Amino acid sequence: MEHESKSSRMAASLNFEDVRRLIIHNFPRHFVPMLYCMEKRKCENQTLITEFNLLDFRNLHGLQILLFLLFLVIYIVTMAGNILIVALVVADQHLHTPMYFFLGNLSCLETCYTSTILPRMLASLLTGDRTISFSGCIIQLYSFGFLVVTECFLLAAMSYDRYLAICKPLHYSALMNGRFCLQLAAGSWVSGFLAITIIIFLMLQLTFCGPNEIDHFFCDFIPLLKLSCSDTQLISMVSLFLSFFDTFPPFLLTVASYIYIITSILRIPSTTGRQKAFSTCSSHLIVVTVFYGTLVIVYMLPKNNTLRDLNKVFSVFYTVLTPLLNPLIYSLRNKHVNMALRKVLSKFAGSSSQQV
Prior knowledge:
Blueprint: H1 2-13, H2 16-26, H3 32-40, E1 51-54, H4 64-91, H5 98-127, E2 131-133, H6 134-167, H7 172-175, H8 178-203, E3 213-214, H9 221-225, H10 233-266, H11 271-299, H12 305-332, H13 335-355
Parallel strand pairs: 1-3
Antiparallel strand pairs: 1-2
């Protein structure tokens, strides 16, 4: 009786964590993910998920066709506008400057960016099929994360370019030379690639055993991580560190550049001079404000009920509308791009009339 009483007290003193450690120590490693499922109560068995359901805009059943047509027009205009800017920057010698070199990189990025999300969303709105395979979801997350981080660094490089052009005009050509431009652009793309590669490597170590519904219109990191029944502490810490490193320094550089730019513009005595100086950076400032503003709302503000309901709406801004705004803002507000476009159109019209 005394032995039984002692065993009962020992059993009562063991909590779930002690039992989990004992089993992990004595059982093969492939049993470990099941324990995390038991701990988080996220799955009843070890049936692995092979596909996910993207719930996207399921509450707007009556507007599916309207949303499809709207996003289709946005996709066509976005692709045409960004591809046109890339073509103009490559073809026109007057646009072979650092500012338009970065703009061409940004337009190329936006072309890939919008193609990562919109085609899948259009197919879902048209057919009603919201399923996406596990590999397809990981590829979409990889492409999306890679391009978002790259855009943060590219926008910072563009703001630094405008800072040198306005605040240090006499040294601009020497400081922002061709080699330095290539280094900034290449560094932006490489930074995005390295950051998301680490995250995806850790993501592939997780186990997904249900549920499989992602309450979003694309495979975003946080909604996908919530579906894992593995221990996500490591990937959460690593992603927090990488997110801080890959977004805060570029954002800080962008803000500091524009503080110096605005200060320099206000010191210009003539109104015409101030307007001319501000016009060279106003387009980029609008794009930066929209991009970082929506990112802060979606990822950094507390997830109360109101913001949770509006999360998809704000996500549309930086995933769909920002790639659309870039070519419109830079083409409508930039006289050099407009002049290059007129030249192309005049050559095209001249060649057409000669053929007739």
